[in-house]
């Protein structure tokens, strides 16, 4: 693995899992209070474009990291609405 590939791997890992601590905190406290799902939704939407870009340039790391990031961000949105709905009942 060359130097630029290592940098790309580390950068992809970092940006992909940046939202994971917030997701885990929401799940732990079982509340979406204080969370705005808009950013996660926007990030997930644009990461879909990164997946497409990765396909265009034939870069499997770009595709894989961004698919994982899309899942994390849309889980954030889903968890937000799940706990928001439960909180109203």
TrEMBL record:
Q: Which GO terms describe its cellular component?
A: membrane
Keywords from the named record = Membrane, Transmembrane, Transmembrane helix
Q: Does the keyword Membrane apply?
A: yes
Give TM segment ranges: 6-27, 39-57, 63-84
**Which residues are in coiled coils?**
none
Q: What is this protein called?
A: MtN3 and saliva related transmembrane protein
Species this chain originates from: Nitrosomonas communis
The lineage is: Bacteria, Pseudomonadati, Pseudomonadota, Betaproteobacteria, Nitrosomonadales
